[in-house]
Specification:
single chain; about 625 residues; alpha+beta; Immunoglobulin-like; six-stranded mixed sheet; 33 strands; globular; disordered N terminus
Length: about 625
């Protein structure tokens, strides 16, 4: 590894590794798991002596160990399997290994673990992953299981299931595994933020014409369905999943909504997700998050060039986050020392591996409260841009980041990291910070650090200004680098190089995509595996062309091979990407046909899958 200067080394201490990764396996380890912290012993099939002090694909394998006070046990979603989970899935290429962490303090007595992945679509696909490695860590009470994904597994999002007959236990996590065919260096992912399940504000603000067709409670649901069609590689969600009122129904509602769609969602909490009351005695939103969504911070890699650090920017003790309902004195950002040190080491490792990093957070660590809160903000009592929020009335003033020390530490971390990368070719830098909180589109580039700071509009709450709409941001990566962060302009419209307009996002300067403009319906079917002829209609109400994938569920034609070719089916209005056979181990009598299609602006297109003979 490259040697940094003494000053840089002091800012970025080398992470301690409990199990060193030999150089030949370094890239393999990075590709198979969503963190540079997963040990080589899990992925290379070698268990260290004693198996103590192992690192995990998440910073803290015990994040969900204890149920918070007054938490209804029926709401608990994270029990045995602590990785992968709904809010922190695994990205795995077909034919490669999936690593699973199971929390069970039984001294390593369980030796018959079963590992499966399955979809919860109308025609389910289920694949057994023979457990090729089972390592027990006595220090943490965790099993590290490893299984190989069958090479013919289609690109899709799967639930993950573990079980043991001897121990008589089982567990399942929705949408925990994203299977890709290969790790492409050119792909799309989506930035979604400020979903705000349970937020009453969306009822009182008039929606823009871009958000057509649908009552406010259905907006997020329709956006998720729209993203299912767009089929991005994955989705990063930067906080404010719920509103922060009664957490039990809000988190239950959010979990049910997210698990209904087969989408790979990397989630981190925002301030609305983490409010506490009575110093955490009566409630603590972050504890709900840990029991139902996943770890509050972690990281993952994609391909050979990209790294994502997903942080909890509403960190700190419950006393800092204390309030009732949404009446909380400090609702800006802060990062505790433990997480800050983890972030230093995580970004250091990624940079030394030559990966560019994207940070996903809810708040902007630069503070800059005056940009979004006006010329004066009572919450900023010393005028430095950070909202100290020391007085109770400060809760009514805009807050971006509360703790100046941690905010500036993050900024300095990015500055030092990128300065070193600029002087040492081949070292990765921190290229983007993706954020929410503002409910509007703001993008600016820090020329000194070479970092893009990207705020994306809300997906389900009141928006910042009259020219914002509810939506999401599609980010295109080409050759391992972000190529675009805005929706594509209509033909003949030239996009400006950047957004330096404090008046927000007039025109086409890096706007998000407005949600609820791509509507798919089944017009002939039903689309559940019982009808051999299925037609879906896709309507594009936006003013730009879109492309995506539709799934068709049809019967297996008797006597035809269920693996190769078109399996006796033809498609009109699109092209077949791949076909998978449903059932356990692909032995069912139904097929899942993945059809790629494009839709022009304002177009309604019908896509039909039917047997070849009936199509003649």
């Amino acid at each position: 590894m490259r040697q940094r200067t003494a000053a840089i080394r002091k800012s970025f201490p080398r992470p301690e590794r409990s199990c060193p990764r030999p150089q030949p396996c370094r890239r393999l380890a990075a590709r198979l798991v969503p963190s540079c912290l997963l040990v080589f012993c899990l992925l290379a099939g070698k268990a260290p002596a004693g198996a103590e002090n192992l690192a995990y694909p998440i910073p803290d394998a015990g994040y969900s160990d204890e149920l918070p006070r007054f938490f209804l046990p029926a709401l608990e979603k994270i029990r045995l399997m602590v990785y992968p989970v709904l809010g922190c899935p695994a990205l795995v290429a077909a034919g490669e290994s999936l690593g699973v962490v199971v929390k069970r303090a039984d001294g390593g007595a369980t030796h018959d673990w079963m590992l499966r992945i399955a979809t919860h679509d109308p025609v389910s696909q289920s694949y057994t992953l023979p457990v090729t490695e089972s390592t027990y860590d006595g220090a943490s009470g965790c099993y590290l299981l490893k299984g190989t994904v069958p090479a013919h597994t289609p690109r899709d999002t799967f639930d993950c299931v573990i079980s043991s007959q001897i121990a008589e236990v089982s567990d399942m996590q929705h949408n925990a595994v994203r299977i890709v065919k290969t790790y492409g260096e050119s792909y799309r992912f989506v930035h979604l933020t400020d979903v705000h399940v349970g937020d009453p504000r969306m009822y009182v603000q008039e929606r823009r014409p871009e958000n057509r067709y649908g009552a406010p409670p259905l907006m997020v649901e329709r956006i998720l369905k729209e993203l299912s069609f767009l089929d991005p590689e994955f989705i990063v969600v930067s906080g404010d999943l719920v509103f922060g009122g009664p957490y039990s129904p809000e988190y239950a509602w959010a979990f049910e909504l997210l698990s209904r769609f087969s989408l790979p969602l990397f989630l981190v909490p925002g301030n609305h997700d983490g409010y506490a009351s009575g110093g955490g005695i009566f409630r603590d939103g972050l504890e709900y998050w840990k029991q139902m969504i996943g770890p509050p911070y972690y990281s993952f890699n994609y391909g050979d060039k990209q790294h994502f650090a997903c942080i909890n920017s509403y960190d700190g003790p419950a006393s800092r986050r204390d309030g009732w309902y949404v009446a909380v004195r400090q609702w800006g950002g802060a990062l505790g020392r433990e997480q800050l040190e983890w972030l230093r080491q995580d970004l250091l490792s990624a940079g030394e591996e030559g990966r560019n990093s994207i940070v996903v957070a809810h708040h902007d660590p630069r503070g800059d409260v005056h940009r979004f809160g006006g010329e004066t903000s009572p919450a900023d009592e010393d005028g430095d841009g950070y909202a100290e929020a020391l007085q109770l009335p400060d809760m009514f003033s805009y807050q971006e980041w509360n703790d100046r020390e941690s905010g500036q530490a993050i900024v300095n971390l990015i500055t030092d990291n990128n300065a070193y990368a600029a002087a040492h070719p081949g070292t990765g830098s921190i290229t983007h910070v993706l954020m929410g909180h503002v409910h509007g589109d703001f993008i600016d580039r820090d020329g000194d650090r070479g970092t893009w700071w990207v705020h994306t509009t809300s997906a389900g709450s009141a928006v910042y200004s009259r020219d914002d709409f509810l939506g999401y941001r599609v980010i295109a990566v080409e050759d391992g680098r972000v190529a675009s962060m805005n929706r594509t302009a209509p033909e003949g419209v030239e996009l400006p190089p950047g957004d330096n307009d404090d008046g927000n996002n007039q025109g086409w300067d890096y706007q998000s995509c407005a949600g609820n403009n791509i509507v798919s319906t089944t017009v002939r079917g039903p689309n559940d595996g019982t009808s051999a002829v299925v037609t879906q209609e896709i309507a594009n109400y936006s003013d730009v062309a879109v492309a995506g994938v539709l799934k068709f569920y049809v019967p297996l034609i008797e006597g035809l091979d269920g693996w190769t070719g078109s399996c006796g089916y033809v498609v009109s209005g699109g092209t077949i990407r791949e076909i998978a056979r449903g059932g356990d181990e692909s032995e069912g009598n139904c097929l899942v046909v993945y059809v790629e299609t494009g839709v022009a602006p304002g177009e309604r297109k019908r896509v039909t899958v039917q047997p070849a003979e009936s199509g003649r």
